[in-house]
Specification:
The protein has 143 residues and is α+β, with helices and mostly antiparallel strands. The protein is 48% helix and 15% strand. A four-stranded antiparallel sheet has the order 1-2-4-3, covered by helices on one side. A hairpin with a 5-residue loop joins strand 3 and strand 4. Helix 2 runs parallel beside helix 4 and helix 3 crosses helix 4. The chain is globular. It starts with 19 loop residues before the first helix and ends with a helix.
């Protein structure tokens, strides 16, 4: 008889909530940390993503600010740059659109108006560019 709180069959328990994909990503990240200067790689990923976000900020009035460092950058969405009023409705639509296109974003911030683009250390340049393209396409789809 199976225990009520046991993990579903075929999953791995522990801190990754039984998600084998999350475990595999963590193992890959640990391999990178051993073989490469992961701090430099994180800063490189962050600089590429920040540059892309800053360019988007110039193009779209709905982007109020770019926040964060390294591979954990966030974009603040506002109703317009003058009022700086949070725009959680837009963020909700953006997150859903990006997910439908295959990009997982994190909704963060106290006003639910910040979206984080989580770039893992095992991400290649091509994957990063593809993710940024989906991010911008998702913005355009909801304007």
């Amino acid at each position: 008889m199976r225990q009520k709180d046991a993990a579903p069959a075929g999953t791995i328990g522990g801190t990754y909530c039984g998600n084998p994909l999350a475990c595999a990503a963590a193992i890959k990240a640990m391999e990178i940390m051993k073989e490469e200067d992961y701090c430099a790689k994180s800063l490189h990923i962050g600089s590429v993503v920040r540059k892309a976000f800053e360019e988007m900020k110039e193009k779209y009035d709905i982007i109020g600010d770019v926040r964060g460092i390294g591979g954990m950058l966030g974009v603040e969405f506002v109703k317009d740059k003058e009022s700086k009023e949070p725009n959680p409705e837009f963020v909700s639509k953006l997150v859903q659109t990006a997910l439908q296109k295959g990009l997982l974003l994190e909704n963060a911030g106290s006003s639910s108006n910040v979206v984080r683009f989580l770039a893992p250390l095992c991400m290649t340049e091509e994957q990063m560019e593809a993710g940024l393209k989906i991010f911008e396409e998702s913005i355009l789809a909801n304007l």
